[in-house]
Design brief:
The protein is α+β, with helices and mostly antiparallel strands. 24% of the residues lie in helices and 32% in strands. The chain contains seven helices and 13 strands. Helix 2 crosses helix 4 and helix 4 packs antiparallel against helix 6.
């Protein structure tokens, strides 16, 4: 892979060279590698096929989780979240100790506590990690999905952008079935506070218990706003917002 320089940027193919635009800029690469049909059928590439199959299962699991929390991700996610989550799911599926190689999946692995522990704490926005924004303990009631932040003083306990005037908290609880890709999401109402020195206890509770026989995933979303003439506007299109997996059960 090579980076294109100069005023004129190319996209498309010229001979064995492919020119394309990515998140890292304009790049070029030369065609190469093993023929696809050989990889599909040659016994020498059986390990490659197994690895490819498991990578696909991990990517599907990541997509299922993203779909479950899509309404929140639209307000707090970085542009690398898909690849970061796929990489994490690839680590999790290795904890499937019962399936054959090539068939190990997140749906089986997530039954293990070690796999749940890997998923717990994941930040959907790497630019705004929860533990770098909120400096108060969080308590979770797994039976109701209620998240409580006791004795919060926003001016002291929240690291906000200099332009922010308000912060809001939203709790989410989803039942996610990584085996069949189904999910159900329950959200709380947002609690909105000025970034001042007033102390209060924040309590946000999802509207109900999500149905399903999958894995329970609990999330806290922290959003920042700037108030102008009585209207609150999201900062930097949500670039400062944090979205974190609080627990996995």
């Amino acid at each position: 892979m090579a980076r294109q320089k100069g005023i004129i940027k190319l996209t498309g193919k010229i001979g064995d060279l492919s020119f394309y635009k990515s998140k890292d800029g304009y790049l070029a690469r030369e065609k190469g590698g093993v023929d696809g049909e050989r990889i599909k059928n040659d016994p020498a590439f059986v390990r490659t096929r197994e690895n490819g199959s498991e990578f696909g299962l991990a990517a599907t699991a990541g997509k299922t989780l993203r779909n479950a929390f899509r309404p929140m991700m639209m307000r707090a996610a970085d542009n690398r979240v898909t690849s970061r989550l796929t990489r994490l799911m690839s680590q999790i599926r290795k904890l499937d100790t019962t399936s054959d190689r090539g068939k190990r999946s997140v749906g089986v692995a997530i039954q293990n506590q070690a796999a749940k522990d890997l998923l717990k704490g994941f930040n959907f926005n790497i630019r705004a990690m929860l533990n770098a924004i909120l400096y108060r303990p969080i308590t979770l009631d797994q039976a109701t999905g209620e998240i409580e932040i006791a004795d919060l003083i926003p001016a002291n306990h929240i690291a906000a952008s200099a332009n922010a005037t308000h912060v809001s908290f939203t709790a989410a609880w989803a039942n996610v079935n990584f085996n069949d890709g189904t999910y159900e999401l329950s959200l709380s109402s947002a609690t909105n506070l000025p970034l001042d020195s007033a102390q209060s206890t924040v309590t946000v509770t999802p509207s109900g218990v999500p149905a399903g026989t999958g894995t329970d995933v609990y999330i806290l979303l922290v959003e920042f706003f700037q108030e102008v003439n009585g209207t609150q506007y999201s900062l930097n299109n949500g670039g400062y917002n944090a979205m974190n997996i609080v627990d996995v059960v």
